Amino acid sequence: MNKIKKLFKGRVGSVISYSLIKYIALAIGFLKGLVNARVLGPELLGVLGNLILILGYCGYANLGITNSMNREYVVYEDDNKEKAESVLNTSFTFLVYLSLLFIIFSIISFYMYKNTYGIYLSLVFVIAIFEQFKNFFTSYFRLKDDYEMINKIEVIYNIILFALTVLLIFNWKILGVLVAMLLCDIVIMYIGIKNMERVKIQIEKDILKALISLGVPLLIYNLGFYILTTIDRLIIIKYYTNEALGYYTFANTIVTATLVFITSFLFLLYPKALKTFNEKKSNGISEKLFFYTKILELGCVLLFIMGLIGITPFIYLLLPKYEASIVIYNILVLAVIMNYISYFANTYIASNKKQMYLVYLQIISIILNFTLNIIFVKLGFGVIGVVVGTLITNTIYSFIQYMIFLKLNTKKMNFRKTYIIYRKIIIFSAIQVILVLLKVNYLISIISTILITLVFYFNDIKNIKNYIRYIKD
Known about the structure:
The protein is an all-alpha fold. The protein folds into 2 domains: 12-203, no CATH class; 214-473, no CATH class. The protein is built from 18 helices and no strands. Helix 2 (10-58) packs antiparallel against helix 5, helix 3 (65-76) packs across helix 10 and helix 15 (382-410) runs antiparallel to helix 16.
């Protein structure tokens, strides 16, 4: 009993507590996703996925202010509390002014289309206003180390969204989903304002200038990353049907559910990682990142196996019409994992204001991803080919990111050391793609994957206790 209590204390405890709540929130959100999938069907789910894609792009209208706020606040937090609070006030006020722009876009969309899609798009821009503030509150409470508040927001949002979706979707379809999202965001806006410290509606020009000067490169980087991670959806929209996009959208939802613990861990760690790497104490960082990345890789692989075992029977039993999503999921989850492997290297680069290196890399990666996707489409591989193209691109993108980190930290772009880090996960992923393309039996695929995991990661699995102790320390 005492061991359990100790486990829930400190950093690991924060991650576990947050992850458990995140799983509950995600379970509710996943149920909502199942309702969407059942009621809308693959075609309308594809249309909804297209609207959500547009909503995602709206998140980059803030010139990177929210992202730069994370970094600037932790820099001033210890030495200049007043300036740290001014960073929050200026960021919040900027979002208030930005809301006017979204209102204009909403009105233009409504009168430009004058049809059902125009109504959908108009609502999306209104939702974007509240999504900006929702993201602000999440960052705000994370900076304040108020994880309990973040948990409340997650649970309340998903419970209300699920209830409203069930009430509205049967009669209003996509419109019902969008209205439910809007009402939930309004509730979260109220909760956020009520529970945050008093905010001043004011903009300090020097701080705004600093936020924008830092935020624009972060914006370019984040937008580039979003384009890189959504280009497969754009290709599917261009060359295939809404039904195909629906299968992909559902597979992407399952990927999120599979990796939620890793996502939670990295989410909570981010501000502290930025602060640590910003101190520019480079002694031993290369070795530490090597070790952190090994832990991250092992966690991702173990979650992949659990997903591989559980997702197929789950879909066959509950949502058989989404059977086509299974093979998409099996490869897509590996593509996401590849991005996670370079997380610590990426954080080091961003914390030292060298993210423009990543922007150049993203431009090359976007061109590569687009080219590979088109080639696989023309060769007749379908949506699977698009996802394989994304996996190849993400592997190269992640690999080179680590090389950039080594170049910045050790003055040497060490290919050999990067290869040592990535060789297991690259071979592991290649084998999984072969199993999918050969349409290997479900049971044989699981047995093969477990055996491969034991061959590659047996020593790491034996050291799990040491890894957990290291994280706690």
